[in-house]
Amino acid sequence: MGLWVPPEVEQSIRETPMHDLGKRLRAIDPRLTLTRWDGAPTSGLNTGCWYILRHNDDGSNALWEVQTDGVPCEPTGWHVDAFAAGDSWTDPDGWKRRQAEYLRQRDAEEHVRAEHARWRLKDMTDYAFRTQIPVTRKVA
Fold first, then answer.
1. What string of DSSP letters covers 6-31?
2. E strands of 56-116, at which residues?
């Protein structure tokens, strides 16, 4: 979820150089920067947390807190890859491909469930309608 950045906070946000993650973000979208907020907690920004900042074309900015399972953390390549997977700037048709893959996977899972249900029904009917003739032998 992107956060709105008030203009007074925007003035104090600076890009933080950090190995190649900032470069990788810029390769995804040149408007992206990686920054760490070290100011006082304000407007949804937490002190010491990492953020991905995007300078929008209309002059506004959007900010995403770097998290893993809802907990703020140091940025890694995984975060950049996850950000790239949802990016429509460099890959406008990516969403359509991901949606098609999701639908294929869902249909395959539904097919497996239906197949299991058919086999279970077959086993139940085989058991219910099975004719068993006891074969006994007269022991002399």
1. -HHHHTT------TTHHHHHHHH-TT
2. 61-65, 67-68, 71-72
Q: Residue 50 gets which letter from DSSP?
A: E
45 and 85, same domain (yes or no): yes
Domain boundaries, position 102: 93-129
Among 46, 44, 52, 53, CA closest to 72: 46
* Alpha carbon distance 134, 123 (integer Å): 21
pTM of the model: 0.54
Q: Are residues 71 and 10 in the same domain?
A: yes
**Measured distance CA(32)–CA(16) in Å, rounded:** 12
Average pLDDT of the chain? 79
